[in-house]
Amino acid sequence: MAGPSTALRDERVDAAPRPAGPSTRDVLVVAAVAIVARLVAAAFLARAPGGLSDPALYRGFARGIADGRGYVSLLGQPTSYYPPGYPLFLGGLQFVLDRLGLAGSLPAAAAVVQSFLGGVAAAAVAVAGGRLGAVARLRPSPRAVGVACGLVLALWPNLVAYGAVLLSETLFVALFAVALAAVLVADREVRWGLPLAVAAASFGAAALVRPQVLLCLPAVVLAWAVARVPWRSVLLGGAVLVVGAVVFVVPWTVRNAVVLGSAVPISTNGGDNLCIGFRDDASGGFAIAAACDTGTRYVDGPQVEVARDRETQRRALRWIADHPLELPALSARKLWITYRDDRDALAAAESYGETPRLGAPARRVVGLGLDAAWWAIVAASVTGAVVLARSPGRRTVGVVVVALTTVAGLVVPVLFFGDPRFKMGMAPSVALLAGVGAGRAWAAWRERTAEGRQRPVTEAGVRP
Fold first, then answer.
1. Could you give phi then psi for residue 97, rounded to 5 degrees?
2. Angstrom distance (rounded) from CA 103 to CA 99
3. Using CB atoms within 10 A of its CB, is residue 275 exposed (0-12), middle (13-18) or buried (19+)?
4. Do residues 148 and 129 lie in contact, with contact meaning Cβ atoms separated by under 8 Å?
5. How does DSSP classify residue 215?
6. CB neighbours (10 Å) of residue 164?
7. Is 204 in contact with 248 (CB distance < 8 Å)?
8. Residue 151 and residue 435 in contact, taking contact as beta carbons nearer than 8 Å
9. 329: number of Cβ within 10 Å
């Protein structure tokens, strides 16, 4: 007799009762671990940034916003070069500090606030991991899988260090983790309610920090379709996610139309990022190249900023059209540059060489430790991907969402240029895969250990 169809098996997986994920206490413990780890890192790394590094620029943006001048460049001109989410976040924090008489404490205050955001991210990943373990019928228990996933994010060394730096990684990861958790909690119940509203708001806010997160919206909709969610629910869910993005992005687009004189959707650095990645002699990584020099700077004023963005976009797209055969090798170099190591937060904490805090030997040792932790996470993630691909619930919403958002994260450096920072955006998805892999490895080790203890007893029982 023929076995049940794939659709029927999937329905049985969805319909079967699911064991519980992490308890509230478990989630709070994971969050506390993340917060404490980041506060310890902040005690060593949170310092005023130097030079013209991104952390120093963000501090300047925060000052302009807190002073009521709006989002302005170093020369005081209105700008939208960097996505506005993180500058607005820091500007709000600077505004509060000014009223408390702590105007010069932004680096330390941001590190503390970002430590708690790290706790939010780890808690969200623990919740998402529990749901993933339940729908995919993983072992050990969904509770153990959720805790493992949350702890991966909580103790990820490079991400812990980012909590002490004036960069957008921590804020973005928290928003993206909450969005993922909301989607996994909703699962097949794609209807108007708190999970879908939280997902829409989180994705929308994250788009103002890193617009590339919008690539995840079609990934989520596709996951619903693959999991055979009713098409009306898929349309409703997709519409709500789009509305969430519109609610956050459109007001900023209107601001740009008024202030910059052009309806720039979010930011004007897309052209530079494209041109850096697609030009003659491109290495695949970041470099200031003559091919992208327009003879102007984005700080020269709104009209110049917009014109520069359009010109560098045009140059990059023309290069892509003229060199299609070079794209595969170039993409491979970008991915290697992005994923070969995981010590970029340490460089950021030292303002990329402007404010060194470690000697060369110590920096080398710390860097090797960060890289070792990263490759351990990679190994656990690969294991987790294999486990999910073989699980009974491999076509459920949670499994497909994690797979597709991971792929969307891989696309980002290919679209622009390779940089280790770019992989931090997909940290929640990677943590979910790594937690699944680590949980399965732990369960297998415990089973082997238990068998080893029982074997001598059994053999002894059969001896004369």
1. -60, -40
2. 8
3. buried
4. yes
5. G
6. 28
7. yes
8. yes
9. 10
How crowded is residue 134: how many other Cβ atoms within 10 Å of its Cβ?
A: 25
Residues 29, 357: Cα–Cα separation, whole Å: 32
| φ/ψ (deg, to 5) at 405 | -70, -30
Burial 377-394 (b: 16+ CB within 10 A, else e): bbebbebbbebbeebebb
Nearest-angstrom CA–CA distance, 233 and 106: 44
The answer to whether the CB of 400 falls within 8 A of the CB of 316 is no
pLDDT digits (tens, 9 = 90+) for 143-157: 999 999 999 999 999
Cβ-count burial 15-52 (b if 16+ within 10 Å, e if not): eeebeebbeeebbebbbebbbebbbebbeebbbebeee
Query: Using CA atoms, how far apart are residues 219 and 196, in angstroms rounded to an integer?
Result: 15
Encoded amino acid at 28, one letter: L
pLDDT band at 344 (very low <50, low <70, confident <90, very high): very high
In whole angstroms, give the CA distance from residue 276 to residue 286: 6
Q: Which two tokens stand for residue 60?
A: 């300047």
Residue for token pair 């952390």: 55
User: Pseudo-torsion of CA 45, 47, 50, 55, nearest 10°?
Assistant: 80
Angle at 268 between CA 266 and CA 271, to 5 degrees: 125
Quick one: DSSP state of residue 187?
A: T
Longest dimension (CA), the chain: 94
Tens digits of residue pLDDT in 153-175: 999 999 999 999 999 999 999 99
Q: Quote the tokens at residue 360.
A: 């060369």
User: What tokens does 222 get?
Assistant: 């596709």
Q: Which of 77, 91, 88, 86 is nearest to 305 (CA)?
A: 77
- Burial-class residue 347 by CB neighbours within 10 Å (0-12, 13-18, 19+): middle
| Amino acid at residue number 8 | L
Q: Give the separation between CA 264 and CA 260, rounded to whole angstroms.
A: 8
Query: How many whole angstroms from its chain centre is CA 287?
Result: 23
Whether the pLDDT of residue 9 is over 60: the answer is no
Residue 72 bridge partners (DSSP): 78
